[in-house]
Design a protein that fits this description.
single chain; alpha+beta; 5-stranded mixed sheet; 5-stranded antiparallel sheet; 36% helix
Length: 755
Amino acid sequence: MPNKRSGGGLSSTQAAAKFLGVSVLAGAVMAGIALPAVGALGLSAKGSVEGFDELPANLKRPPLSQRTTILDSDGGQIATVYSRDRTVVELKDIAPSMQKAIVAIEDSRFYQHGAVDLKGILRALNKNAQSGGVEEGASTLTQQLVKNVEVEEAGDDPTKVAQATQQTLGRKIRELKYAIQLEEELGKKQILENYLNITFFGQQAYGVEAAARRYFSKSAKDLDLEESALLAGIVQSPTRYDPINDEAEAKKRRNVVLQRMAEVGDITRAQADKAQKAPLGLDVSKPKNGCITAVKGAGFFCDYVRQVFLNTPVFGKTKEARAKIWNQGGLTIRTTMDPQAQKSVQNSIKEHVNQSDSVATAASIVQPGTGKILAMGQSRPYGIDVKDNETTLNLSVDKDMGGGAGYQPGSTFKPIVAAAAIEGGTPATKRFSSPYEMAYPSPISACGGKNWVNTDGAKLTNENRAEVGPYGMKEATAKSVNTYYVQLISDIGICPVTKMAKEMGVNRADGGKMGQNPSIALGTQEMSPLTMANAYATFASRGMYCTPVAIESIKQRVGGKTKSLQVPKSTCHRAMSETTADTINTLLKGVVEDGTGTQAGLGSRPSAGKTGTTDYRYAAWFVGYTPNMAGAVWVGDPAHKRRMVDITIGGVYRSKVYGGEVPGPIWRDMMSGALQGWEAPNFNLINIPDERKRDRDRNRDDNNNGNDKGNGDSGGLVDGGTGGDFPTPSFSIPENLFQGQGNGGGNGNGGGFGR
């Protein structure tokens, strides 16, 4: 801020600055109060009045970093995160005994002197001379405030912190000039308030409010005399006088503060004697910082919110700028997390999968039509204790948001192929020969005018020899007939499928491009549970895709003022027609009613979904939805090493794991709890004629023998096999399948499915 002038002459501040510039330069060098000689400090002989004048006039005062609070959609606290645990309070909210204690021990003449205490300098000089060392400093509270401000500005940069605290004459001169500025601008009370809010009190506590809560589990306004003296004593050396690690040393220091308070007349000698005999009276609250402290198992949702903040340009042009705001803190972030849904997800996970199991599960719930992420959880808790199966890897999300490379979704991808076909004009009654075994059709058109070519004659089979067509889409989807879906993608081409996937927000979890080969129809591209949940939400919302969002609003507190920050909003677009979505909903509705997903059924509440079990059983899925919510559940080994055969999950032995058998019940229980109290609307269904049943009826009429041996629609959505039985995995890909595209140049994922 500009210096005040009167009649064009020097202001009182400037005059004092000139005087102090000379006095300090001369006095500090001669006194040697913990300062080396001028020549070694980068302040040459020019460090005179002129050099003093050339220093910047304004101290850059950053907003004090504070804790950030993350809330659920109802306003309940999920977690607090901070780089420095601090809650800024006004002076009136700090106990008078605390104000007196800090002044008495750190700067007893605070209210009598200006920015510099000349008597204090002489006193320190005399004491240091007598001892032959540096027994006492001479910095005023205002000077200490300046140093703390510079440390705050340095943040976590060790080089800048060292520069802000170095014992050099140059820094001391700069500190004095800024102290003069603060004395003129703020006044004593404001300086004291700022000092008590910025000072480090040890144990991760910055500022007196955080310190009071850390050591005594109370607010700074409620501190008594003994507690105030203890906190005031810590400031000089937070490590040496740490009452948690060294009660005896902390008590000695506290009693020194009490003695000093009596000497300056803040308390009587009798009060000091009584207080010095009192125990420390600690009531310690452990530091609670970061997503590891999140309630309802929401550590990964909390971390996802952090990732959203750090990766979204709306919060800053660069990642560094966004990180600075995040570390600055003082944010109140209201999220989309529904506490009822989150609790239900975690309860279901704990019921079905143990933390110690050799495989894990991850689940996400999204609201159709809004993109709001309502819940996110997994069986391996948020933490760093690997031996206890803790992890910071978010199994529900993509790699760039804190997740891994994703997992092959298997048959849960087939509805996307069906949607692409129907949207392009293919009727749901479309029939293909769908033999048990066949070679991949070739060539198959791909994007960019290229063709995928089966150069080695690769073949595929259905998982059950009884699965022999012809089939229409309804029965082929119910039985998850591989040959039908490969014939379907060969009929419409690969590009419409990848384009539909993109419209539905479906992408590879590792950020790579979607493969241009027919095996994508069988779910070979690795994806995350959140991606699949949000994709199925498109079906639930009758074709409207909305980008996922986790943040509702953010308020930022800076310098005692609160402002609202702009937050990213979900953007929605029509990914497919209502008719296409309604047709898919009709195709998928049967899975939880009659097929392999019966264990995922929600009773009278209408629901739809799809099971998926990948080759070699490295992963099993259930992705389903109601008109209100869409959810995805994945079960598998994140390291992709443990096949789910002869395995115990959640205390139950499984010879083989299927999508409807393990993920299905997890989905059922989490959705049942999440939807409690919600309305139960129905889907808009489409009449899809059962062509195979029509053929049977025609044959029955022609033959007049009524012979029907169960070849009709199983009524359920299955991965293979016949109604009521759990199928083997939905497909097996030959090792030589991925042979390239067009000229055989190699555009596959490589290897057999599940590797």
